[in-house]
Amino acid sequence: MSKILVTGGTGYIGSHTVVELINEGFEVVIVDNLSNSNIEVLNGIEKITGIRPDFENIDCVDYVALDRMFEKYRDIEAIIHFAASKAVGESVDKPLLYYRNNLVSLINLLQLMPIHKIKNIVFSSSCTVYGQPDILPVTEEAPIKVALSPYGNTKQIGEEIIRDTINANPFYSSIILRYFNPIGAHPTAEIGELPNGVPNNLLPFVTQTAIGLRKQLQVFGNDYNTPDGSCIRDYIHVVDLAKAHVIAVRRLLDNESGKQIETFNLGTGRGLSVLEIIRSFEKVTHVKVPYKIVGRRVGDIEKVWADPAFANNILGWTASETVEETLRSAWQWEKNLAKRTKSE
Ligand code: UD1
């Protein structure tokens, strides 16, 4: 079976993707610098799959270390490149850190691929490239808007770097995946989202508030032009998202499309407001989430959800989990984490 390099493979989406790859019989090498993840994630992956993937503690910004890694694992056939910094607010304070981490790592991989005869790369992009779309649901054809943060800009520039590289050299093939809002955890609750410090994202804040780690959730704004006034997003189960990566990798390996580059939205096609998420979470878990409406968060988009038809039709992939099941999995994971912390 083919060997796949997963950069950022101990991270949130990365670890779930590693599990799905192993389940489908792929061999996996993880490269991660553990800057925003924990080595124990490997135990979770092993518990679920019975296999411990190869792991290299490498920062993808380090060209020489990456080159050595490719020398060691000579039979890598495709790369899924997750490794990146992703905190929107932090990127505003530390733009150069974000440009360096997210762009130099991508450039290194693209430079090393032909040297090591690797043609295929799947790139983690984001719906952030659409900004506030004029038409909803948003399709892949929607115009790219001026980025609202250095983080968002690194995703736009990353896509352009791949496009320009392929234009100059048809050796490469790439699939760009634009994620909407991944939430939830593996149904075994052995792996999930592990935010460092105070969570920036909605779901970890909801589960941490529900379990009592945080006093109160702040809902950023109820005066948006939406039915209940809070922002709307397309929340997708992280396992559904992970499965799309397996399909994308297979498509590249089999050269199914005959195209050098393709871009897909990965979302459910369903928009939910912050208040709807809170209500659904409470209904599913029977746990109250204390919250307070506060002012808008700078840089937030009012509403965005995907038109996933292209991914549905071309990849034969659909986000099939219900939001209830997804929220339940996030809660199971939070409870499992609490148990582990207690027993330590
Ligand atoms: C953002 C980016 C996304 C990026 C992700 C990485 C946009 C449109 N999206 O997602 O590309 O991959 O960050 O972290 O730029 N909320 C609260 N209270 C909280 C936290 C969040 O009300 O404590 C609200 C937000 O205002 C927003 C929704 O919950 O309406 C989702 O927020 P979040 O989980 O941070 O994701 P995005 O901002 O959509």
Report on the structure:
The protein has 344 residues and is of the alpha/beta class. It has helices spanning 12-23, 41-49, 63-72, 88-93, 95-115, 150-168, 202-210, 238-253, 274-285, 309-315, 323-343, and strands at 3-7, 27-32, 54-57, 76-81, 120-126, 173-179, 181-183, 217-220, 232-233, 235-237, 261-266, 272-273, 291-294. It has a 7-stranded parallel β-sheet, sandwiched between helices. A two-stranded parallel sheet has the order 7-10. The protein is globular, with a radius of gyration of 19 Å. The protein starts with a strand and ends with a helix. The mean pLDDT is 97. Bound molecules: uridine-diphosphate-N-acetylglucosamine. Uridine-diphosphate-N-acetylglucosamine is lined by residues 86, 88, 126-128, 152, 181, 200-202, 205, 217-220, 231, 233, 274, 297, 300-301.
Q: What does the main sheet amount to?
A: 7 strands, parallel
Mean pLDDT figure: 97
The side-by-side strand order for the widest beta sheet comes to 3-2-1-4-5-6-11
Q: Which runs of at least 5 residues are low in confidence (pLDDT < 50)?
A: none
DSSP helix fraction = 40-55%
Radius of gyration: 19 Å
Output the structural class. alpha/beta
Number of strands: 13
Order of helices and strands: EHEHEHEHHEHEEHEEEHEEHEHH
Q: Tell me the fraction of residues in β-strands, as a range.
A: 15-25%
CA distance, first residue to last residue: 38 Å
The total count of helices amounts to 11
Ligands: uridine-diphosphate-N-acetylglucosamine
General shape: globular
